[in-house]
Protein backbone atom coordinates (compact mmCIF):
# COMPACT_ATOMS: atom_id res chain seq x y z
CA UNK A 1 0.00 0.00 0.00
CA UNK A 2 2.74 2.46 0.97
CA UNK A 3 4.80 1.48 -2.08
CA UNK A 4 1.84 2.03 -4.38
CA UNK A 5 1.23 5.48 -2.90
CA UNK A 6 4.89 6.46 -3.31
CA UNK A 7 4.93 5.32 -6.95
CA UNK A 8 1.80 7.38 -7.65
CA UNK A 9 3.38 10.52 -6.14
CA UNK A 10 6.66 10.26 -8.06
CA UNK A 11 4.76 9.74 -11.34
CA UNK A 12 3.20 13.21 -11.04
CA UNK A 13 4.90 15.78 -13.21
CA UNK A 14 6.42 18.98 -11.87
CA UNK A 15 4.77 22.31 -12.53
CA UNK A 16 6.06 24.63 -15.25
CA UNK A 17 8.88 26.78 -13.84
CA UNK A 18 8.86 30.56 -14.29
CA UNK A 19 11.34 33.37 -13.65
CA UNK A 20 8.38 35.77 -13.26
CA UNK A 21 7.44 34.23 -9.90
CA UNK A 22 8.09 35.96 -6.60
CA UNK A 23 7.13 35.91 -2.93
CA UNK A 24 4.71 38.11 -1.00
CA UNK A 25 6.62 37.69 2.24
CA UNK A 26 4.79 37.70 5.55
CA UNK A 27 7.34 36.37 8.05
CA UNK A 28 6.12 33.58 10.32
CA UNK A 29 6.68 34.60 13.95
CA UNK A 30 5.57 31.27 15.37
CA UNK A 31 7.45 29.03 12.89
CA UNK A 32 10.50 30.97 11.67
CA UNK A 33 11.83 27.92 9.83
CA UNK A 34 8.88 28.31 7.41
CA UNK A 35 10.57 31.48 6.09
CA UNK A 36 13.34 29.41 4.46
CA UNK A 37 10.96 27.07 2.56
CA UNK A 38 10.52 29.64 -0.22
CA UNK A 39 14.23 29.84 -1.00
CA UNK A 40 15.29 26.25 -0.43
CA UNK A 41 16.05 23.45 -2.83
CA UNK A 42 14.99 24.02 -6.41
CA UNK A 43 12.57 26.89 -5.64
CA UNK A 44 12.14 29.00 -8.77
CA UNK A 45 11.19 32.22 -6.91
CA UNK A 46 13.39 35.06 -8.13
CA UNK A 47 12.21 38.08 -6.14
CA UNK A 48 10.22 39.14 -3.09
CA UNK A 49 8.60 42.08 -1.37
CA UNK A 50 7.54 42.45 2.25
CA UNK A 51 5.44 45.68 2.13
CA UNK A 52 8.40 47.55 3.60
CA UNK A 53 11.48 49.53 2.62
CA UNK A 54 14.13 47.17 4.00
CA UNK A 55 15.01 43.58 3.15
CA UNK A 56 13.73 40.92 5.56
CA UNK A 57 16.19 39.65 8.20
CA UNK A 58 15.27 36.08 7.16
CA UNK A 59 16.91 36.76 3.77
CA UNK A 60 19.87 38.85 4.95
CA UNK A 61 22.21 36.24 3.48
CA UNK A 62 20.68 36.56 -0.02
CA UNK A 63 21.98 39.07 -2.55
CA UNK A 64 19.88 41.01 -5.06
CA UNK A 65 21.03 38.67 -7.83
CA UNK A 66 20.11 35.55 -5.76
CA UNK A 67 16.70 36.75 -4.68
CA UNK A 68 15.79 40.30 -5.65
CA UNK A 69 14.27 42.45 -2.92
CA UNK A 70 11.74 45.03 -4.18
CA UNK A 71 11.25 47.82 -1.61
CA UNK A 72 7.78 49.27 -1.11
CA UNK A 73 6.73 52.75 -0.04
CA UNK A 74 3.66 51.46 1.85
CA UNK A 75 2.18 54.87 2.65
CA UNK A 76 3.49 58.43 2.27
CA UNK A 77 6.82 58.92 4.03
CA UNK A 78 9.60 61.44 3.59
CA UNK A 79 12.34 58.92 4.39
CA UNK A 80 11.85 56.66 1.38
CA UNK A 81 14.17 58.39 -1.08
CA UNK A 82 17.06 58.60 1.39
CA UNK A 83 16.54 54.97 2.53
CA UNK A 84 16.75 53.70 -1.04
CA UNK A 85 19.79 55.83 -1.82
CA UNK A 86 21.49 54.53 1.34
CA UNK A 87 20.81 50.92 0.33
CA UNK A 88 22.21 51.56 -3.14
CA UNK A 89 25.33 53.27 -1.84
CA UNK A 90 25.74 50.31 0.54
CA UNK A 91 26.01 48.06 -2.51
CA UNK A 92 22.46 46.72 -2.91
CA UNK A 93 21.46 47.01 -6.57
CA UNK A 94 17.85 48.19 -6.26
CA UNK A 95 16.25 48.22 -9.74
CA UNK A 96 12.51 48.25 -8.96
CA UNK A 97 10.31 49.80 -6.29
CA UNK A 98 6.61 49.57 -5.46
CA UNK A 99 4.38 52.27 -3.99
CA UNK A 100 1.31 52.75 -1.71
CA UNK A 101 -0.38 49.52 -0.66
CA UNK A 102 -4.12 49.59 -1.38
CA UNK A 103 -4.40 53.37 -0.89
CA UNK A 104 -8.11 53.11 -1.84
CA UNK A 105 -8.68 50.56 0.96
CA UNK A 106 -9.06 51.01 4.69
CA UNK A 107 -6.76 49.67 7.38
CA UNK A 108 -9.33 47.01 8.34
CA UNK A 109 -8.50 45.18 5.08
CA UNK A 110 -4.79 46.02 5.00
CA UNK A 111 -5.14 49.22 2.97
CA UNK A 112 -3.16 52.40 3.55
CA UNK A 113 -6.19 54.68 3.02
CA UNK A 114 -4.32 57.56 1.39
CA UNK A 115 -5.77 60.66 -0.21
CA UNK A 116 -4.73 60.73 -3.91
CA UNK A 117 -3.44 64.30 -3.74
CA UNK A 118 -1.36 63.55 -0.61
CA UNK A 119 0.12 60.54 -2.44
CA UNK A 120 0.85 62.71 -5.50
CA UNK A 121 2.79 65.25 -3.42
CA UNK A 122 4.75 62.48 -1.76
CA UNK A 123 5.43 60.67 -5.07
CA UNK A 124 6.82 63.87 -6.60
CA UNK A 125 9.34 64.28 -3.78
CA UNK A 126 10.21 60.63 -3.05
CA UNK A 127 9.57 58.57 -6.19
CA UNK A 128 10.22 60.77 -9.24
CA UNK A 129 13.90 61.30 -8.23
CA UNK A 130 14.40 57.51 -8.08
CA UNK A 131 12.86 57.11 -11.51
CA UNK A 132 15.32 59.69 -12.82
CA UNK A 133 18.09 57.42 -11.47
CA UNK A 134 16.73 54.66 -13.75
CA UNK A 135 14.80 52.70 -11.10
CA UNK A 136 11.60 51.14 -12.45
CA UNK A 137 8.64 52.37 -10.45
CA UNK A 138 5.35 50.63 -9.74
CA UNK A 139 2.12 52.62 -9.81
CA UNK A 140 0.21 52.73 -6.52
CA UNK A 141 -0.91 49.15 -5.75
CA UNK A 142 -4.67 49.76 -5.60
CA UNK A 143 -7.27 47.12 -4.75
CA UNK A 144 -9.02 45.11 -7.47
CA UNK A 145 -12.32 46.90 -6.90
CA UNK A 146 -13.65 49.76 -9.09
CA UNK A 147 -12.42 52.25 -6.46
CA UNK A 148 -8.90 51.35 -7.57
CA UNK A 149 -9.41 52.87 -11.02
CA UNK A 150 -11.03 55.98 -9.55
CA UNK A 151 -8.21 56.43 -7.07
CA UNK A 152 -5.49 56.05 -9.73
CA UNK A 153 -7.17 58.52 -12.04
CA UNK A 154 -7.43 61.06 -9.19
CA UNK A 155 -3.79 60.43 -8.34
CA UNK A 156 -2.51 61.12 -11.87
CA UNK A 157 -4.77 64.20 -12.10
CA UNK A 158 -3.39 65.46 -8.78
CA UNK A 159 0.16 65.10 -10.14
CA UNK A 160 -0.82 67.20 -13.17
CA UNK A 161 -2.35 69.89 -10.95
CA UNK A 162 0.98 69.92 -9.10
CA UNK A 163 2.81 70.42 -12.42
CA UNK A 164 4.24 66.91 -12.81
CA UNK A 165 3.54 63.78 -14.86
CA UNK A 166 3.88 61.00 -12.33
CA UNK A 167 5.12 58.17 -14.50
CA UNK A 168 4.87 54.53 -13.53
CA UNK A 169 6.77 51.80 -15.37
CA UNK A 170 4.53 48.96 -14.25
CA UNK A 171 1.06 48.56 -12.80
CA UNK A 172 0.61 46.16 -9.87
CA UNK A 173 -2.70 44.30 -9.60
CA UNK A 174 -4.36 42.79 -6.54
CA UNK A 175 -7.07 40.23 -7.13
CA UNK A 176 -9.16 37.91 -4.95
CA UNK A 177 -11.72 35.89 -6.86
CA UNK A 178 -12.06 33.62 -9.84
CA UNK A 179 -9.99 33.43 -13.00
CA UNK A 180 -12.60 35.00 -15.31
CA UNK A 181 -12.76 38.05 -13.05
CA UNK A 182 -8.98 38.22 -12.86
CA UNK A 183 -8.49 38.03 -16.63
CA UNK A 184 -11.16 40.66 -17.18
CA UNK A 185 -9.56 42.94 -14.58
CA UNK A 186 -6.12 42.55 -16.16
CA UNK A 187 -7.67 43.45 -19.53
CA UNK A 188 -9.22 46.57 -18.04
CA UNK A 189 -5.93 47.72 -16.48
CA UNK A 190 -4.05 47.01 -19.73
CA UNK A 191 -6.70 48.92 -21.68
CA UNK A 192 -6.55 51.91 -19.32
CA UNK A 193 -2.75 52.13 -18.99
CA UNK A 194 -1.70 51.19 -22.51
CA UNK A 195 1.76 49.70 -23.17
CA UNK A 196 2.65 49.43 -19.50
CA UNK A 197 3.85 46.21 -18.01
CA UNK A 198 1.72 44.56 -15.36
CA UNK A 199 2.72 42.77 -12.17
CA UNK A 200 0.16 40.70 -10.26
CA UNK A 201 1.42 41.36 -6.73
CA UNK A 202 -1.35 39.76 -4.66
CA UNK A 203 -3.82 37.20 -5.94
CA UNK A 204 -5.71 34.09 -4.85
CA UNK A 205 -9.06 32.43 -5.20
CA UNK A 206 -10.17 32.90 -1.62
CA UNK A 207 -12.54 30.75 0.43
CA UNK A 208 -13.27 28.12 -2.21
CA UNK A 209 -13.01 24.33 -2.50
CA UNK A 210 -9.59 22.74 -2.89
CA UNK A 211 -10.44 21.53 -6.42
CA UNK A 212 -11.54 25.00 -7.57
CA UNK A 213 -8.58 26.65 -5.85
CA UNK A 214 -6.08 24.33 -7.55
CA UNK A 215 -7.74 24.76 -10.91
CA UNK A 216 -7.65 28.57 -10.49
CA UNK A 217 -4.00 28.37 -9.49
CA UNK A 218 -3.00 26.34 -12.57
CA UNK A 219 -5.02 28.40 -15.04
CA UNK A 220 -3.76 31.74 -13.71
CA UNK A 221 -0.08 30.68 -13.58
CA UNK A 222 -0.25 29.40 -17.16
CA UNK A 223 -1.89 32.66 -18.23
CA UNK A 224 0.67 34.91 -16.48
CA UNK A 225 3.54 32.91 -17.98
CA UNK A 226 2.07 33.19 -21.48
CA UNK A 227 1.18 36.92 -21.56
CA UNK A 228 4.32 38.90 -22.39
CA UNK A 229 3.24 42.18 -20.77
CA UNK A 230 2.76 40.42 -17.43
CA UNK A 231 6.33 40.70 -16.20
CA UNK A 232 6.02 39.30 -12.68
CA UNK A 233 3.56 37.74 -10.27
CA UNK A 234 3.43 36.86 -6.59
CA UNK A 235 0.76 34.56 -5.16
CA UNK A 236 -0.84 35.45 -1.82
CA UNK A 237 -0.52 32.22 0.12
CA UNK A 238 2.94 31.93 1.69
CA UNK A 239 1.66 30.87 5.10
CA UNK A 240 0.09 27.92 6.93
CA UNK A 241 -3.49 26.97 6.13
CA UNK A 242 -4.69 27.35 9.75
CA UNK A 243 -3.69 31.04 9.86
CA UNK A 244 -4.76 31.91 6.30
CA UNK A 245 -7.01 34.96 5.99
CA UNK A 246 -8.01 33.91 2.45
CA UNK A 247 -9.33 30.49 3.42
CA UNK A 248 -7.28 27.33 4.09
CA UNK A 249 -7.31 25.96 0.53
CA UNK A 250 -5.41 28.95 -0.89
CA UNK A 251 -2.45 28.42 1.46
CA UNK A 252 0.91 27.09 0.28
CA UNK A 253 1.63 25.34 3.59
CA UNK A 254 -0.43 22.90 5.62
CA UNK A 255 -1.14 23.54 9.28
CA UNK A 256 2.03 21.47 9.91
CA UNK A 257 4.22 23.60 7.68
CA UNK A 258 4.51 21.20 4.74
CA UNK A 259 4.11 22.39 1.16
CA UNK A 260 0.63 21.86 -0.23
CA UNK A 261 0.22 20.96 -3.91
CA UNK A 262 -0.16 24.66 -4.76
CA UNK A 263 2.88 25.53 -2.63
CA UNK A 264 5.05 22.95 -4.37
CA UNK A 265 3.73 23.83 -7.84
CA UNK A 266 4.44 27.51 -7.22
CA UNK A 267 8.08 26.66 -6.48
CA UNK A 268 8.24 24.61 -9.70
CA UNK A 269 7.91 21.21 -8.00
CA UNK A 270 5.54 18.23 -8.08
CA UNK A 271 2.28 17.64 -6.21
CA UNK A 272 2.79 16.68 -2.57
CA UNK A 273 -0.75 15.48 -1.81
CA UNK A 274 -0.53 17.40 1.48
CA UNK A 275 -4.01 18.65 2.27
CA UNK A 276 -4.45 22.10 3.88
CA UNK A 277 -6.91 22.36 6.74
CA UNK A 278 -8.45 25.27 8.61
CA UNK A 279 -7.58 23.85 12.01
CA UNK A 280 -5.69 20.96 13.50
CA UNK A 281 -3.99 18.38 11.34
CA UNK A 282 -4.53 17.61 7.67
CA UNK A 283 -4.89 13.86 7.22
CA UNK A 284 -2.19 13.32 4.61
CA UNK A 285 0.38 15.70 6.01
CA UNK A 286 1.31 13.50 8.95
CA UNK A 287 3.39 10.49 7.90
CA UNK A 288 2.91 9.01 11.37
CA UNK A 289 -0.84 9.15 10.97
CA UNK A 290 -0.70 7.30 7.64
CA UNK A 291 1.35 4.62 9.38
CA UNK A 292 -1.29 4.34 12.11
CA UNK A 293 -4.05 4.08 9.49
CA UNK A 294 -2.15 1.44 7.51
CA UNK A 295 -1.43 -0.46 10.70
CA UNK A 296 -5.06 -0.37 11.73
CA UNK A 297 -6.25 -1.49 8.28
CA UNK A 298 -3.66 -4.29 8.38
CA UNK A 299 -4.79 -5.18 11.91
CA UNK A 300 -8.38 -5.23 10.75
CA UNK A 301 -7.61 -7.61 7.89
CA UNK A 302 -5.74 -9.86 10.30
CA UNK A 303 -8.79 -9.96 12.53
CA UNK A 304 -10.98 -10.79 9.56
C1 LIG B 1 20.44 31.85 5.37
O1 LIG B 1 20.08 32.05 6.72
C2 LIG B 1 19.03 31.20 7.18
C3 LIG B 1 18.72 31.57 8.62
O2 LIG B 1 18.35 32.89 8.72
C4 LIG B 1 19.46 29.75 7.08
O3 LIG B 1 18.39 28.92 7.48
C5 LIG B 1 19.83 29.44 5.64
O4 LIG B 1 20.32 28.13 5.55
C6 LIG B 1 20.90 30.41 5.15
N1 LIG B 1 21.11 30.14 3.75
C7 LIG B 1 22.31 30.21 3.19
C8 LIG B 1 22.37 29.91 1.72
O5 LIG B 1 23.30 30.47 3.82
C1 LIG C 1 21.87 45.83 -11.36
O1 LIG C 1 20.94 44.85 -11.81
C2 LIG C 1 20.56 45.03 -13.15
C3 LIG C 1 19.43 44.06 -13.44
O2 LIG C 1 19.76 42.77 -13.05
C4 LIG C 1 21.76 44.85 -14.05
O3 LIG C 1 21.39 45.05 -15.39
C5 LIG C 1 22.83 45.86 -13.64
O4 LIG C 1 24.01 45.63 -14.40
C6 LIG C 1 23.15 45.74 -12.16
N1 LIG C 1 24.03 46.84 -11.78
C7 LIG C 1 25.07 46.66 -10.99
C8 LIG C 1 25.85 47.89 -10.64
O5 LIG C 1 25.39 45.56 -10.55
C1 LIG D 1 3.24 65.72 -19.30
O1 LIG D 1 2.96 64.88 -20.40
C2 LIG D 1 2.28 65.56 -21.43
C3 LIG D 1 1.86 64.53 -22.47
O2 LIG D 1 2.95 63.72 -22.84
C4 LIG D 1 3.15 66.67 -22.00
O3 LIG D 1 2.47 67.37 -23.01
C5 LIG D 1 3.53 67.63 -20.87
O4 LIG D 1 4.44 68.60 -21.34
C6 LIG D 1 4.15 66.89 -19.71
N1 LIG D 1 4.30 67.80 -18.58
C7 LIG D 1 5.40 67.87 -17.85
C8 LIG D 1 5.40 68.85 -16.70
O5 LIG D 1 6.39 67.18 -18.09
C1 LIG E 1 1.78 51.29 -27.78
O1 LIG E 1 2.84 50.61 -28.46
C2 LIG E 1 2.62 50.46 -29.83
C3 LIG E 1 3.73 49.59 -30.41
O2 LIG E 1 4.98 50.04 -29.95
C4 LIG E 1 2.51 51.83 -30.49
O3 LIG E 1 2.24 51.68 -31.87
C5 LIG E 1 1.39 52.62 -29.84
O4 LIG E 1 1.36 53.94 -30.35
C6 LIG E 1 1.59 52.68 -28.34
N1 LIG E 1 0.39 53.31 -27.72
C7 LIG E 1 0.47 54.24 -26.81
C8 LIG E 1 -0.83 54.80 -26.30
O5 LIG E 1 1.53 54.62 -26.33
C1 LIG F 1 -2.42 21.47 -11.94
O1 LIG F 1 -1.15 21.25 -12.55
C2 LIG F 1 -0.47 20.09 -12.08
C3 LIG F 1 0.93 20.07 -12.68
O2 LIG F 1 0.86 20.14 -14.06
C4 LIG F 1 -1.28 18.86 -12.43
O3 LIG F 1 -0.62 17.71 -11.93
C5 LIG F 1 -2.66 18.97 -11.80
O4 LIG F 1 -3.46 17.89 -12.18
C6 LIG F 1 -3.34 20.27 -12.22
N1 LIG F 1 -4.58 20.42 -11.47
C7 LIG F 1 -5.66 21.00 -11.96
C8 LIG F 1 -6.85 21.03 -11.09
O5 LIG F 1 -5.67 21.52 -13.08
C1 LIG G 1 -12.55 33.42 4.28
O1 LIG G 1 -11.81 32.58 5.13
C2 LIG G 1 -11.23 33.25 6.25
C3 LIG G 1 -10.35 32.28 6.98
O2 LIG G 1 -10.91 31.00 7.06
C4 LIG G 1 -12.34 33.83 7.11
O3 LIG G 1 -11.76 34.56 8.18
C5 LIG G 1 -13.19 34.77 6.27
O4 LIG G 1 -14.28 35.22 7.02
C6 LIG G 1 -13.70 34.06 5.02
N1 LIG G 1 -14.36 35.04 4.18
C7 LIG G 1 -15.48 34.76 3.56
C8 LIG G 1 -16.00 35.86 2.68
O5 LIG G 1 -16.06 33.70 3.66
TrEMBL record:
Keyword Hydrolase: yes
Key words of the record: Hydrolase
Any one Gene Ontology molecular-function term assigned to this protein's record: hydrolase activity
The Asl1-like glycosyl hydrolase catalytic domain, residue ranges: 24-266
Signal peptide: none
Pfam families listed in its UniProt record: Glyco_hydro_cc (PF11790)
InterPro entries in the record: ASL1 (IPR053183), Asl1_glyco_hydro_catalytic (IPR024655), GH (IPR017853)
A GO biological process held by the record: fungal-type cell wall polysaccharide metabolic process
GO cellular component entries: fungal-type cell wall
Name assigned to this protein: Glycoside hydrolase family 128 protein
Amino acid sequence: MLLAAAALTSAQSTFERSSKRGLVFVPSETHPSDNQIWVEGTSDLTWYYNYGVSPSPAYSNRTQSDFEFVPMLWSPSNDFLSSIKTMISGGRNITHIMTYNEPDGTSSTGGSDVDPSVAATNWISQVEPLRKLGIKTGAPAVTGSPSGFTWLSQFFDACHSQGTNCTADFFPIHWYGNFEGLASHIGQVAGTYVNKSIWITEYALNNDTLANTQSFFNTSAEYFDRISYINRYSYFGAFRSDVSNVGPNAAMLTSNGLLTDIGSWYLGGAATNNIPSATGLGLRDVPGMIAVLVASVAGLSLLL
